[in-house]
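Let's practice the habit of predicting before peeking. Look at the sequence and jot down your guess about where helices and strands might fall. Then scroll down.
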Amino acid sequence: MVNSRQERSPISWVRAVGWVLGIALLVACLYYTIRTPLAGFNQIATLRVYAFSTQQEVLSQAIFPAFEQTWEAENHKDLMIEAVYGPSGTLAGQINLGAPADVAILSNSRHIDWLKIGKRLNTKDEATLIGATPLVILTREGNPLNIQRYSDLAQPGLRLVHADPRTSGMGEWAILGVYGNAYLPGEDAEVGAAQLKAIWQNVRLMGTSARGSLALFELGAGDAMLTYEQDALMALERSVPLEIVVPERTIVARHYAVVVADNLAWRERPIAEAFIQFLVSDQGQQIFSQYHFRPASLSNPAFPALQSPFTEADLGGWSQAYDSLVTNLWEKEIEPGLQLEPASGYLGTGE
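Done guessing? Here is the structure:
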């Protein structure tokens, strides 16, 4: 009798087991390959923003909540924004040293260039201009020294508070502004340098940032100070007793935001990019204007027109202006002769 059941060879069983194990291994690999990136999507998304000091109120009180609401509605996921505030130059240095910023909002384009030199940005990434604010003079209530223009800051006996150009974007903008105010009418470098030197003879205190300098002024330091229009108007809203003088010819500070690509994983970059787009959107710009931040075009009827505004471009651009005015003129000729007062007396820290 012929047995109809055929016996399977050992080789066939080995092959079958091999196929099963191979398929199981492939499925496991695919599962963990897909599961790992998806796990990140199941967590709360985080955006880390480093911003210069005067942007703290507008960002924390209005921009961040509005962006979170918009982003969460579109992506059906929670978003948490972490923020660090400080002097613009200091922040740029920290980011170059490894600070985990996803987005940097800095006072001027030169600090953006620092991040490029530090290779923290992709070569294809360009900074986005998010708005502008002119340089103004703050005086005590009633303007007792009758300050109307930059040159009035050189009058004998006046005590001026100034942001430190070594750390603060405001400090750098003020050097360009004071110089350019005198230089531009006749494009005479000696006239511009003379006004800058004369005014700096009256500088008695320096704050590390625009906001730090304003804090000293609010505590009673100095007779006048230079700052952004935006921060001056914010101080008036806080009922700080001061007056704002807008010189006829004044520099307009232009501020930028950029994605810090070196810190971002591929799944995080869209959040950072969406945030910067929100800053320049109609909604974002409207929020900025409520906090006295002018659009880059300066064309907003809610703000008084400026008589003779200028920018760093009128002084040859940031690279040229910084080298000639900050590095060569201020650092080498002005800073060594400064006669500063200790800030401790105003901060209540003693000697």
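How did you do? The first strand starts at residue 45 and ends at 52.
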